[in-house]
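F.,

This is the one I mentioned.
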């Protein structure tokens, strides 16, 4: 492939480590090419100790913007000039946009998750009750953006209860949604009775359940989180943000109990589409971007 790069080409990029499996360069470069935009998207493997200098470098080199992935999503906020509200509340950034000589951080993981649900899955978030499994970086983005999009209640379940409690506190104090934390032991043989009951109640009253931990992800597809699947039914939408494998054991169990299920491919596509729109001010060619995904 011969790239038509010139002195006018506008660079975008990705920083993270390791980046061997990233699908973003293909998704963005195909989209730029499709719309005839003179942009290029380049991935950079950046170690944690080099993050500050990498951001300074991208700034000095005039990058239009860049994506940020594991393990930098939280630390990168220290090197930006401004944060979008959702990114600030989530404490994590996956997309940076240059505005004049300032760098502003966004979280299109959370925003893209919500947009995918609303536009493709037909799930309107407003007034809904949500149960988020996990309290790490991905959970924070998903939970905060669901709350900002008008969810009535966002319950957080996590192995480390303290992390769930902190996230629930941010949501109930800083967004219009109600929030609470419950303990969840997804790799335990038996749920602790009280926690098991609290979790069961949260499942029963939820409209949407989102699994954000890495349990069941390639290469450990054989892992099925312990969860009160029997409390799920046809009225539930269940999303696992994992996309490899396309159907985790968690999703398979949820489907067996009648729930509508979605994997993480939609979130991946829409986080990319929203980053693309922030950098180019053009509508993302969703179907072109979708075609390069597995
Ligand atoms: P990410 O940025 O992908 O969300 P993370 O911030 O490391 O990654 O968060 C990982 C999440 O998966 C956390 O909720 C973590 O639970 P803890 O907060 O208790 O660590 C959860 N997780 C990962 N491995 C787990 C396991 N074996 N059992 C239970 N929870 C696990």
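My design for it:
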């Amino acid at each position: 492939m011969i790239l038509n790069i010139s002195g006018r080409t506008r660079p975008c990029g990705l920083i993270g480590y390791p980046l061997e499996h990233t699908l973003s360069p293909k998704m963005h470069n195909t989209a730029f090419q499709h719309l005839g935009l003179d942009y290029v998207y380049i991935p950079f493997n950046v170690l944690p100790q080099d993050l500050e200098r990498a951001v300074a470098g991208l700034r000095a080199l005039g990058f239009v913007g860049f994506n940020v992935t594991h393990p930098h999503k939280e630390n990168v906020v220290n090197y930006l000039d401004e944060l979008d509200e959702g990114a600030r509340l989530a404490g994590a950034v996956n997309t940076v946009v240059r505005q004049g000589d300032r760098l502003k951080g966004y979280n299109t993981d959370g925003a893209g998750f919500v947009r995918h649900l609303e536009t493709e899955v037909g799930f309107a978030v407003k007034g809904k009750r949500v149960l988020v499994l996990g309290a790490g970086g991905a959970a924070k983005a998903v939970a905060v953006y669901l709350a900002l999009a008008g969810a009535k209640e966002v319950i957080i379940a996590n192995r480390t209860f303290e992390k769930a409690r902190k996230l629930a506190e941010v949501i109930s104090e800083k967004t219009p949604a109600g929030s609470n934390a419950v303990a969840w032991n997804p790799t335990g043989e038996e749920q602790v009775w009280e926690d098991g009951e609290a979790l069961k109640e949260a499942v029963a009253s939820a409209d949407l359940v989102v699994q954000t931990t890495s349990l069941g992800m390639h290469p450990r597809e054989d892992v099925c989180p312990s969860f009160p699947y029997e409390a799920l039914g046809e009225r539930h939408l269940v999303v696992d943000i994992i996309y490899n494998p396309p159907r985790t054991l968690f999703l398979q169990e949820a489907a067996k109990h009648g729930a509508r299920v979605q994997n993480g491919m939609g979130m991946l596509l829409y986080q990319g589409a929203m980053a693309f729109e922030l950098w180019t001010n053009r509508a993302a060619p969703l179907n072109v971007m979708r075609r390069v995904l597995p």
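Residues 10-106+267-291 form a domain with the Rossmann fold fold (CATH 3.40.50.10860).

Talk soon.
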